[in-house]
Amino acid sequence: MPSLHVGIMSGTSLDGIDIAVASLDSDHRSAELLGAICLPLPPELKTQLLDLCQPGTDEVRRAAAAGQAWARLAAEGVATLLMRCNLQAADILTIGSHGQTIRHHPELGFSLQIGAPALLAELTGITVITDFRSRDVAAGGQGAPLVPAFHDWLLSDPNATRVLVNIGGFANLTILQPGLSVTGFDSGPGNVLMDAWCALHTGRAFDAGGAWASRGRPIPPLLASMLADPYFSKTGPKSTGREYFNQAWLKARLQGFPFQPEAVDVQATLLELTAQTIAAAANEHNVAGGDLFICGGGARNDYLMLRLQQLLSDASVRSTEALGVDPDWMEAMAFAWLASRCISGRPGNLPAVTGARGPRVLGAIYQA
Ligand SMILES: Nc1ncnc2c1ncn2[C@@H]1O[C@H](COP(=O)(O)OP(=O)(O)OP(=O)(O)O)[C@@H](O)[C@H]1O
Ligand SMILES: CC(=O)N[C@H]1[C@@H]2OC[C@@H](O2)[C@@H](O)[C@@H]1O[C@H](C)C(=O)O
Question: Are residues 138 and 152 in the same domain?
Answer without folding.
Answer: no
